[in-house]
UniProtKB/TrEMBL annotation:
Coiled-coil regions listed in the entry: 4-31
Subcellular location: Cytoplasm, Nucleoid
Lineage per the UniProt record: Bacteria, Pseudomonadati, Thermodesulfobacteriota, Desulfovibrionia, Desulfovibrionales
Protein source organism: Desulfovibrio desulfuricans
One Gene Ontology term, aspect cellular component: cytosol
Key word Coiled coil present: yes
Highest taxon, organism lineage: Bacteria
Protein's name according to its UniProt entry: Nucleoid-associated protein SAMN02910291_00208
Amino acid sequence: MRNMNDILRQAQVMQNKIAKLQQEMGEHSYEATSGGGMVKAEVSGKQELRKITIDPKALEGGDVEMLQDLILAAVNEAGRIARETMDREMSNISGGIKLPGLF
């Protein structure tokens, strides 16, 4: 029975660390750019879009489709960076074990 108590205690410690990490990651910002810096996207660790910055030069050509592509590329890259950071940090906490539903 002692081993079971140790396992439960370790699981509780891991759960607390994961909850703390999720909160901290949600407060961080991750940025990515596209088009040589003409578009910059900022997302939270929860992958929520916080900010889009568009250089006025990107509007000069009037190519709306290109601008849309640049926005998508920047947002997707910022989201990827946030996901990879969360995955890496979760892996450190869990010792490399993939925990379904957590990340």
